[in-house]
Design brief:
Elements lengths: L2 E5 L3 H13 L4 E5 L3 H13 L1 H4 L4 E5 L10 E4 L10 H13 L6 E3 L5 H11 L6 E3 L1 H17 L6 E2 L2 E4 L3 E4 L5 E2 L2 E2 L6 H8 L2 H4 L4 H17 L4 E7 L5 E9 L2 E5 L6 H12 L4
Parallel strand pairs: 1-2, 1-4, 2-3, 4-5, 5-6
Antiparallel strand pairs: 7-10, 8-9, 10-11, 12-13, 13-14
Helix pairs in contact: 1-2, 1-9, 4-5, 6-9
Amino acid sequence: MSVIAIIGAGPLGSATAHKLANRSRVAEVRLIDSAEGVARGKALDIQQAGPVENFNTVVSGHGSVLAAAGALAVIIADETTGTEHTGEAGLGLVRQLRTAGITAPLVFAGAGQRPLIGLAARELHLDTRRLIGSAPHALGGVLRAMSAVVLDASAVEISLDVFGIPPRHAVIAWHEATVSGQPLTSVMGAHEIAALSSRITGLWPPGPYALASAAARVAEAVCSGSRRRYSCFVDAGRGRIAALPVELQPGGIKRTVEPSLSAVERTALETALDARDA
């Protein structure tokens, strides 16, 4: 039975649980928070929406990280106050999961959790193939939606990714972006591309629903595999964590894909990876 556990019953965690349940790709979603009553209450609310929204995924609330045992993926979300699990407290949470013998891939759903991925790799020596930050995929989704408005098209017809380290060192892969199979740069004016690129800082961090949607899709991919690629925070080498395109499989990252970038975009990505203030 496919199970995904979510640590944190805040706005991001509960939105992710609802998204997973509504998509009906997994059998059970476990919402875990030290405030067990809150986790149980939110899980019940989501479960009761099943008959109305036409899903039958089991959603349960728990108070201990031990409830993540047996999950195929563990999503690290936020506290009930809305504060993401980050820093030493976040590292302590990941340490608890390791001590409990939980070896499932960890999907870091928050926009501010990139440093935590690095801490988990350096301090706990966890396999970086199972440490994945899904927030860049959410930012890509926001840009796809905005591009769709400019082109009067559907966002599902647009392929567009963001790499590097948002927001200051984000690299939008306009060179490989497409809309309905055509190069996006052939149908979108240079001034429109520049206008969208200039808005990156204001678009970061994405809202909880965008982050939840991205986390749900990435978690599903590390449960059952996927042929598509995702822009995620991963180990980029030299001790840096950055957004790069990856292919996912059950258990974690299958491989990191070399993005197709223009010379200018390639230079920007290399600058992002070398940035000391990122």
